[in-house]
Amino acid sequence: MTEIILFGLAAAVGWKVYQFSKAPDDLPLRSVTLCLVSAALSYPVAMPGGATGVDTVAGHGAAKLIQNLLLLATVYFLLCFYLYSAEGSAGRRRARFEAVLAFAVGAAISVAALTVPHSVFEGSFSTADMTVPQIAFFYGGAGLYLMYALTVTARWTYQFARLSRRPHSTGLWMAAAGLAIMAGACGVRAVFVAVRWSGGAVTHSLMSAVALLLVVAILLFVAGITYPGVRTRIASIRLWVRHRRDHRRLEPLWQLLAEAYPENVLGAASPAFRDRWRARKVHRRYHRRIVECRDGLVDISPYLSVGGHETDGAALSRDPAELAARLRLAAAQIGDGAPAPRHAMPLAMTLGDDREADVRQLIAVSDALRHAA
């Protein structure tokens, strides 16, 4: 479970940092990036190995204090994301107010943590002595602020989900559910603090169940905010694979036409390294090859007549094998220096009205050339 959470956080942080590098002036994107970075930093500190290392250097209790301060920063930046996204200039004023509130809570729990002996902070939430007022305030104050911020953001996420379309709405529904569960879990933990502070007891199994609920909620939230991006990336990868495959399948047709009309072969916009590098990208090569094939078909069309008689281009394009055979004969005539016997004719693609239908016929002709070779 720990590895799954770490992987999810790392993937989410990496994706948002990449997006933020492309748009550094985007305030909502900056907020959600800082939110995920704070969450990612808090998790290793909460783990036994990380907490031990921090406590060894800074003293007992330092790891818990740092972890809670990072959690406060996490939910604060999450609040800012919605404020910047939905409320404009009013959101910036509200964000400053929320910053003061978060800073006040952080300062208060820091004072509470620093006014008790380090040994009091040994152990975990389930074993802490809540009868010590500073400890109860430390856990209770942080928990109440987290519950407040998570409740507000869950409500806003719910509203955004109702107004959005898939796949964004799916991710928002998942994120809203995760936030709501986290808010509920924080509220339950605050009740636990109050019960234990008053001298009551809470069973270990009940506290473990709430802790597990928090883990599930965090996973659900991280999955929700990364779902639209992951789905978009998967679609992009599929398109990249298809364009790369179709580019290769167009090779026989392109090769024949490029040899007949080398002037139709397009190059980079300039000899600069950047333009030459961009020209080698799969999507650019794919679209350039389609243009070159279509231009070549227009140029070679005068040689596609049979016995000197006119041939309807639309009818000819319905039979890829026939067109492939004509193209081979036409290329041979051009190689022998024969003049064009007539004017150019349109080779209309008749399998559909969209560009994809046109591409499918070009590939069909290219495949016919490959099989006839």
Beta-strand share of residues: under 5%
Helix content bin = over 70%
Question: Number of helical runs?
Answer: 14
Could you state the order of secondary-structure elements as H and E?
A: HHHHHHHHHHHHHH
What does it look like?
By secondary structure, this protein is mainly α. The chain contains 14 helices and no strands. It has helices at residues 2-22, 27-46, 48-58, 62-86, 88-114, 133-163, 168-197, 204-249, 251-260, 273-279, 282-300, 313-317, 320-335, 355-372. The chain is rod-shaped. The chain starts with a helix and ends with a helix. The model is unreliable at 49-59, 306-315 and 348-352 (pLDDT under 50).
Can I get a quick summary?
This protein is an all-alpha fold.
